[in-house]
Amino acid sequence: MDKFHTVFVSSTFLDLERERETASKALMEVDCFPAGMELFPAADVQQLDYIKTVIDVCDYYVLIIGGRYGSISNDGISFTEKEYDYANEKGIPVLAFLHATPEKLSIENSEVSESARDKLELFKVRAAKGRLVRYWSNKDELSAQVITAITRAKKMAPSLGWVRGDKISSVETLEEINSLRKEKSALETKVKQLIQSKSTLTYEPSNLAKLESAIEVEYFFAKETNKEFKSTISWNDILVALSGSIFYPLSEYQVQNQILNTCSSSLPQQLKDEISYNNPLRINSTCFNKIKIQFFALDFFEFKDSYDSEMQDEYIAWEATAKGKKVIVDLVAIKDS
Q: Which phi and psi (to 5°) does residue 2 adopt?
């Protein structure tokens, strides 16, 4: 019997309008009906409540992320991220599609403020954790990725879906549907129990680089991007540079500066003299995100939304976890000879 599935398509609106249309057409090619708030581009709390009722009846959730974080609610979280959180809460399978080269997007399709960029990067980390993420650079790639991912999801995480009423012609079929509904309800109960007990679980990532191993940090002058440098330092070197985090959280600006202080020590004096307040060094964003994700995987730091009342600006703070503090203390504290 032919079965159809409903898929919620979520993204920021204006910058990804064509991509949403492409994803929706791709879904219809594989017997899926896309659902989204195309008629309500302006996000607000009341519309979010209605969106939740739409997500409730969807079988899968497609998340498309480009270079914008999106409209932000009063609590500082974008409505797109709130949709994602609700889909996770309901146990709906999430298929995430991230732009492969966001640094090449136009200014109007990118976040301007550092605060919004930080929120977007942290959202990407959350969206990628614990699932296979697919990357795209243009509409055609996105279309192919969506078709491949939803086809695989139907096999690996089958959902109830639905069939035309005139196709249900037997008591046996109705009994099968009822049995599947009961099975889905039981699985949802198990998921909730696992979520409630997750605080007692530990995550031990495998095959991560040793702290003694090296990473190549790429950086450049903020006003002279043609002057690019590379320094090879170890993960231990970075942890020592961030040792202040055991006493107080560090902003991402402070984290970058501490890492750059370690890297720039190997630069010729002539280049060191060029570093100034008006022409500081900056770490390549892709490289910085690798460092951030590595420490996230190691559970050395937590990344929290913070607010600077003096500057009246929001930022992402790096706060060392208990595990991270233990490692930093072991690296920095003076040992008995």
A: -65, 130
Q: Where in the chain is the domain with CATH 1.10.10.10?
A: 214-332
| Sequence-ordered strand ranges (E) for 177-312 | 214-221, 224-234, 250-251, 281-283, 301-308
- pTM of the entire predicted model: 0.51
pLDDT digits (tens, 9 = 90+) for 189-221: 777 676 665 544 444 556 888 999 999 999 988
Instruction: Give pLDDT tens digits for 246-305.
Output: 999 999 889 999 999 999 888 888 888 888 777 788 899 899 999 999 999 999 999 988
* Right CATH for 214-332 from 1.10.1060.10, 1.10.10.10, 1.10.600.10, 3.10.180.10: 1.10.10.10
* Euclidean distance between CA atoms 97 and 136, whole angstroms: 7
Architecture of domain 5-165: 3-Layer(aba) Sandwich (3.40)
